[in-house]
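Example record used in the benchmark description.
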Amino acid sequence: MPDALSTEKTIAQSAEAVSGDTIGNFIDGVWTVPAGATLLANTNPADAADLICHTPDSSREVAQRAIKAAAAAYPAWKKVPAPKRGAIVQKAIEVMGRRRDELARALTREEGKTLTESLGEVDRAIGCMSFAAGEGVRLVGKTIPSVGTTGFHFTVREPLGVVALITPWNFPVSIPAWKIAPALVAGNTIVFKPSPLTPVTAKILVEIFMEAGVPAGVLNLVFGNTDVGLEFTENATVQAVSFTGSTHVGKAVYRQVAQHTGRCLMEMGGKNPFVVLADADIDLAAKQAAMGAFGSTGQRCTATSRIIVEAAVKAEFETKLLALVEALRVGDGMDPATTMGPVVDDVRQRDVLRHIENAKADGAKLLTGGAALDQGEFGRGHFVAPTVFTDVLPTMRLFREEAFGPLLAITEAKDFEHALALANDCDFGLSSSIFTCDLNKAMRFTRESEAGMVHVNVNTTFSEPHLPFGGYKDSGFGGRESGHEAIEFFTEWKTVYIEGIQ
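Model output (C-alpha cells):
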C-alpha cells in the first residue's frame, strides 16, 4: 500500500510564484490557500508535461485550525438525529451520481487508471455510501434484562468526536468515501488528509458532501505532507484516526496515536497469494490472475501478487496467463483502447523497477515485461511493462515484499499442503484466493488461510461494499472498513442503568 502520510512531489517556490489553478484547504466551510505556503505540483502520470494544479504543503498550525473547526462543529452535529445524518449522505449519493463522469475523468487524469476503472471506482464509492446512509436508521443499541426487580438497563451508540481520515492516492474516491460516510452518519466531525497526488478528486468529493448539506466545520480538508499527518495523529483532540497506507507508516501512526490513547484503524499493505490447484479451471484461473495482478496497474493493496500453482498444471497456466498479459494495451487511461495505465508518478516507477532488478538479481526467471516503457507515446509518462516472473522461491524478495505495481511472481507448489503453507508464509495477511473444484480443499483453505478476506475461484481484489474489508498480520488492525463494521469503529458504547422503576 502506498504511503498516505508523506508523498514526494515536485515543489514550486511559493504561492506567489505559481500561475494556474491552485486548490486550497477547506476549513470551516471556506477554501483558502495559506499565505506564503510552499505549493506542490500535481501532474498527469500519463504525461508529466500536463500540469493539473497545485496544492499547499500546509503547516501544523493550519492542521490545528482544521481540528479546532471540527471540534467547534461537533456538539451541534452530534445532536442531529442519525436518520437525518444518513439522509444527508443519501443526498451526497445523488450529487455524486450527477458528477460521476466528471469525477471519473479527474481520477484518470491525476491517478492514471483507465476511465473504465475510474467509473467503477466511483460506483464503488456510491455503493459504500449507500450502505452507510442506511446505517442512520440502524444505529441501534440493546435493552438488557436486569438481575434486579426495579432496574431498566440498555446500551446506546455515541460518536467519538473529531476523527482524522488519512487516505492514499490509489483509490482517491472510494477509500475517502467509505471513511467519510460512516464517520458522518455516526455523528463525528472530520479532518481529512488526502494524498497530494490526487487533490482534484478530493476537492470534488468534499464539494459533493457540502452540496448535500453537511454543515460548515463538520468536514474539513487539509493538504500537505508529514506536518499535517503528524498533527492529526498527535493532537489529543482527535479521538480516532482511520489510516490507509503503507505498513511502515501505519505502524508509526499507531505509535503516535497511542500516546494520547486515541483509537486507530490501520489498513495497510498486502502480498496476496493466489493458489491454483491441479483440478482448477485453468482458463478461469489465468483470466482472474491477469485481472487481479494488472487491474489498476497493480497499484492496490489487494492486488494478486503471488501465484502459487501446483506443478502438474504450472506450464499450462503460465502459457494461458502470458497470452492474456501480452495482450494488455498499456497507455493513457483516457484512451478507450487502453487496458492498463501508467504508475502514478516517477517515485512509484523507480520503486517498481527496483523490485524488478531485485528479482533478476535473486535468480527469478523473467517471462515477460521487466522494464520501463519510455519510448514514443510513453516518453512523457510513468509507464512500466506488465511483468511476470516465474520460479520465484520463498527466500526471494519478490515473494515477500509488496511491489505495488504491475509485477507478478509465480511459485511452484508440490501439492495442496505445500501450497497452503506457501500462501501463509508471509508477514502480510490481507487477501487470498484459491482456484479448485474440490469443495473440501476450498473449505479447508477458507479456514486456514491467514488473511482477512478469502476467495474461492475469484481473484484477491474482489469485495463488496456491504461486507467488512481488512486484513491480518501486517496488513491491518484496529477494526474493519466498509459494511456495518465501519460504524463499529466510529462509535462508542454507552451502558445506561436506571434503577428504582416500579
